[in-house]
Specification:
- By secondary structure, the chain is α+β, with helices and mostly antiparallel strands.
- It is built from 3 helices and 8 strands; from the N terminus they run H-H-E-E-E-E-E-E-E-E-H.
- The chain has one domain.
- Strand 5 and strand 6 form a beta hairpin.
- The longest helix has 15 residues.
- The N and C termini lie far apart (about 70 Å).
Amino acid sequence: MKFLKLSLVVLPLLLTGCAPTVHLSPAEDANSVSCAELMVRLSDKVDGHTRRSTDAQSTAAWGEPTAVIFRCGLPEVTVSELKCVTEEGVDWLVDDSAAPSYRFITFGRKPASEVIVDSTKAVGVSVLDEIGSTISYQKATAHCG
């Protein structure tokens, strides 16, 4: 009987892993076909961090504690005052207003995606390089610069 009680406690922990689910909110267009196509291409590791489960459609997270967050389904951005950088052929707007967490939003992709990087735990350029290879499957509608 003790074994049964112990297994009922331990088994769920083994099945879900050690890291708890990351609670996120889905973007407005998270159910788009384009987001679904991106989600199946995202890597299990980003900048050395392991992917974790999330509770919102078209989202992903890596690291324990969370170092990188991804959301797809935001409104397309084609005009912005934010600085724009290009990594892996993908244009990204850089929002550093919450540094050391940086928010990167795809420019000229419909729907847009965002990546939030905690720069104390991950390297933004490495993250954008790795996720950019996935985003490049989505056709660009505009380019910055």
